[in-house]
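REQUEST FORM: STRUCTURE PREDICTION
Request ID: SP-0412
Submitted by: Lab K.M.
Chain count: 1
Length (residues): 276
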Amino acid sequence: MSLILSRQFKEVSVTDNWHLFGQEFTSRLLLGTALYPSPQVMQQAITASGAEIITVSLRRQALGTEQNTFWNMIKELGLQLLPNTAGCHSTQEAVTLAKMAREVFETNWIKLEVIGDDYNLQPDPFLLVEAADLLVKDGFHVLPYCTDDLILCQRLLDIGCEVLMPWGAPIGTGKGLLNPYALEVLRNRFPEIPMIIDAGLGRPSHACLAMEMGMDGVLLNTAVAKAHLPVMMARGFQDAVKAGRQGFLSGIMPERALAKPSTPTIGQPFWKQENY
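STATUS: Completed
RESULT:
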């Protein structure tokens, strides 16, 4: 009997690797490298998260010995670098910084940010498309940080972007997925496009929800870097991303308006209570 059960419930191993620009990855969690208490904590948290893609910026403020330590630890990780154009407010500024990043980091991957509002750090949709167009034509693999606007995302795809990175909420707010409907629309309209939720995630449960929608990955920084225990939080996000992905692949049950018993009552005996 035990042999039959062991065969019946034998766990099936499923490879769920994904691809970006011809490269294969196992982890669907992308992490930033800013705001950590120290370069050592940054390295430990990234390692604990299992992330294989990390964002870096030329505009990092650290100087001197700390700067050298930071870059040495980045190199030791041996991961795919994703330079970003954080802080840029114009097309020319973003394009120039992207070209500098390509030379420094020796990669044509770029996370493109062109900020249109300093209050909520919302990207400028017009300048974003303009800058993306120029960079795609120059041979960059552009990962655009954008809002969840359907038309904006369509325009980015039209000019040659192969990946979309819509926000969940404004950068650093930790509010999670403010507009699940809009994100679900994007996922349904562009089912074959790699889609990574970027910005606004504050809890592992936010990442899990994004993955349950069928998103290909999540990118975050502040939620881990500013946690009381960054390394532990990194592990929490790693587990959440895996759980959400497994839920999506398994097929999540639909919500119902009415209750439905999990134990069927048809064919069950009813016992008559005798009065003595």
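NOTES: Residues 17-250 form a domain with the TIM Barrel fold (CATH 3.20.20.70).
Reviewed by: T.R.
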